[in-house]
Sequence to fold (349 residues):
Amino acid sequence: MHSWSTLTAAFALLANGVAAQNMLRFACSQLVVDRVDPLVNPGVRYTPHLHQIVGGNSFNLTMEPVEYDLVKRSTCTSCSFPQDLSNYWTAVMFFKHKNGSYHRVPQVGNGGPQGQLINKGGLDIYYIPSGKTTAFRPGFRMLAGNAANTEDSKVSKANICHRCWTSTNEGNFIGGAPCTGSDTVAIPQEPRCKMIRQTIIFPHCWDGKNLDTPDHKSHVAYGQGSGATGGGACPSSHPVKLPQLMYELMWNVTNFSDKNMWPTSGPAFVYSMNLGGSAAHGDYVFGWEGDTLQRAMDKGCNLNRACPAAGLTYQPPEVYNACNIKQQAPEPVDGWLKAMPMGDVAIKA
Fold:
């Protein structure tokens, strides 16, 4: 185990990284696990793959940009800042048993030197500024990653990565900055992993005009620099610097470490597209109240705590954990399933 003094020294190496600057880093518990995707498949129930969604409870099958006002329609959020009614979602990780059945891998909050985050499922969200940043506008949305990609070489490890966590306690930080060192684009397939950390870093440069584009990507771009540093200079085509948005997920694979359960061929851990880490992706729909995110960036609001200067308040875990919605594409997603939830409604094994 690492001592806290060792951890402090390790994070001191990130002089220009996430530990050396103000940033919002906060917990979001699971709102719902559902086969819907209003960004890529608006209006469709039983979309091609399963997602886990966090944020405001106005999440719906169809959310037209600007017209669908998340702030006005939501009555709660599963995130720790009640001013954040945005929605964030990712694919779900599954374990494949050698008998052919599948089990959704549970998630836990992430600890480490910056403090424990308490999640009931869900993920951790980061907004990382670097210099003067312009907050997202109402109606803004974007996608990071490619749900159909099967080639690790087509993914920048600095933006999407996985880390094998050999401790059962997420509070024992393992490794350095996100998406560095031995982190991989591929999902680690090792029984020694007790948890697998997934990191998704979004583009931080915007064209300043379009709130969205048909591919949900062209209006944004990655600028100079790499990793979770807030991002460097932006290209002339996308000159507006945004807060760097990062998702961090801790997949608890402890209950699947028995090699006797593993398939005799192929990966044990896959995402809900039945693909590996190269297909990892994240979706984002902005929904902060008023100018609270801009003020949070300008006032240097930090981590998972109230920031009166920006009007940010903090709600405790028992409040945001209680913000849930029913599936809009009803099917079992917990326990052992006969097949991956793709196509037909999922059936218990």
Notes: The radius of gyration is 19 Å. DSSP finds four helices and 18 strands in the chain.
